[in-house]
Specification:
Layout: E1 22-35, E2 50-58, E3 70-75, E4 81-86, E5 89-93, E6 100-108, E7 112-119, E8 122-124, E9 137-147, E10 174-183, E11 189-202
Antiparallel strand pairs: 1-2, 1-11, 2-4, 3-6, 4-5, 5-8, 6-7, 7-9, 9-10, 10-11
């Protein structure tokens, strides 16, 4: 299981094929740690600030992982993905280039459960400067919940099927939302925001 796989809804109405079952979940998080040696976030975002957002996935998406202990559900079209906002700044999946992963690990290697989100292609209101070669820029969003204690955060009976309800946060001993921006050219620059998700509920829309 890719434990360290680092992945406000979109303002358009999704058009879904017959039989589709989109799930929209609203989350609230408190920033607990920031790394920003180049000062991109200074005076804009700080520890203790509140992040609010929404992620959307499709329950009929196919599992691309052959392991019975791991389910990988990759979404490549809008409106699926994640949008986060803090202090008026947005960090979101690029609706024109969606690459959004939901990964579930159920008693993987007999030692943990995990619920993972990752958005690879994103639009950030605050970002490190784009290098000459755009593939050196990595703006990404991820949320990782893990249970190394009881291995029961995901019920064994449901395996790695995509859930139709938000994760129950109290079932997950570890819970970390990450927003990061970095570029790998000669003048390496980066920032990272980590937050604890304190609420996850079905979106009313």
């Amino acid at each position: 299981c890719a434990l360290f796989f680092l992945g406000l809804s979109a303002t358009f109405v999704p058009v879904n094929p017959a039989g589709a079952a989109p799930i929209s979940i609203d989350i609230t998080a408190t920033i607990s740690w920031i790394s920003d040696s180049d000062g991109f976030l200074t005076g804009r975002i700080g520890v203790g600030d509140i992040i609010r957002g929404t992620y959307i996935y499709e329950t009929t998406t196919a599992d691309t992982n052959g392991s019975p202990e791991v389910g990988d559900y990759r979404h490549t079209t809008a409106p699926f993905g994640v949008t986060l906002a803090v202090n008026g700044f947005r960090f979101r999946t690029d609706p024109g280039d969606v690459d959004f992963l939901v990964e579930l690990c159920n008693d993987h290697n007999n030692n943990h459960d995990a619920y993972l989100l990752r958005s690879y292609n994103n639009l950030f209101d605050i970002s490190v400067p784009s290098p000459v070669f755009p593939w050196y820029l990595d703006n990404h969003i991820s949320w990782q919940l893990t249970d190394f204690v009881t291995h029961t955060a995901l019920a064994s009976a449901v395996g790695t099927a995509l859930p139709t309800m938000p994760p129950v946060l109290s079932d997950w001993p570890e819970n970390s939302l990450t927003i990061s921006s970095q570029e790998y050219s000669v003048g390496y620059q980066s920032f990272q925001i980590r937050a604890d998700v304190i609420s996850a509920v079905l979106s009313p829309t």
